[in-house]
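Problem: given the chain below (192 residues), write out its structure.
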Amino acid sequence: MFQNINNYVSKSISLSADELAYFNAILEYRTVPKKTKLLQAGDICNFEAYVNKGCIREYYIDSNGQEVTLQFAIEDWWVSDITSFQDQTISNMYIETLEDCELLVLSRNSKEKLLAGVPKLERMFRLMIQRHLTVIQSRLFKTISNTAIEKYLEFIKRYPTIPQRVPQHYIASYLGISPEFLSKLRTKHLKK
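Solution.
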């Protein structure tokens, strides 16, 4: 159950056997069925979750009532509304499972306890946030400057398994295009 997350941690820091055991003991293992809302807009996010198995989508609803996908989280990724979790403010987003999921969850209290007990983990979480910010900045730049086909090709290059795991309209929402236009792009791409 902890092998994947322990490998994730070992990419950033080295923990003793006791520290690793403490880390694993603090994590809450949860199985969550497909189509479960882990967070609703208007609520305060009370978790950070490592995806051990499954696929999750973060989205918000725009002023026209349309769902806008912000991110997909699959195995070996973390999911949360970082701002809401950290500042204890109301979230504007939804977090929903797209597949049956196995999660390893930290609450605010358990994370504080964990960081007090194993201060080295501060580095891992800092590096994780830095990588997340890098991905967001890259996505923002590409959203502004790339054509629809360039965005689609970058998406399938960066996330090769997601198109087989999620409905096409969620991918279109992520790319900022209509499902019909995405279908045309995919058809054109497959012909090449």
